[in-house]
């Protein structure tokens, strides 16, 4: 692993996850996700600044770690391949294990796992193109 990473690309990757989440958990899957997660959409989960701030910091940490994994100048192919691998085989399957024990639905897993798959594919595209 290398700390020789493109910090602007890392921040852009984190922003892309934040924007994807706004679309994914907003107009695309908000109602289905709320229903499956047992969340009342009219009741906020906490102060929006804390929620969105935490989400961005965590997306940034993930983008930094992923950039370190890819190295200083990954190809687009490597970024896409590793993004799909990490998003599905590590993140989505880990959610799947937790959801199986928690009795969560397949639909909820598909929504959350799908988001993280796309999140890391986006990271791979951005880091693979921006050197």
UniProtKB/TrEMBL annotation:
Pfam families: DUF1761 (PF08570). Keywords: Membrane, Transmembrane, Transmembrane helix. InterPro entries: DUF1761 (IPR013879). The keyword Membrane applies. The keyword Membrane applies. The chain crosses the membrane at residues 7-26, 51-71, 83-101, 113-130. It comes from the Bacteria. This is DUF1761 domain-containing protein. It comes from Agrilutibacter niabensis.
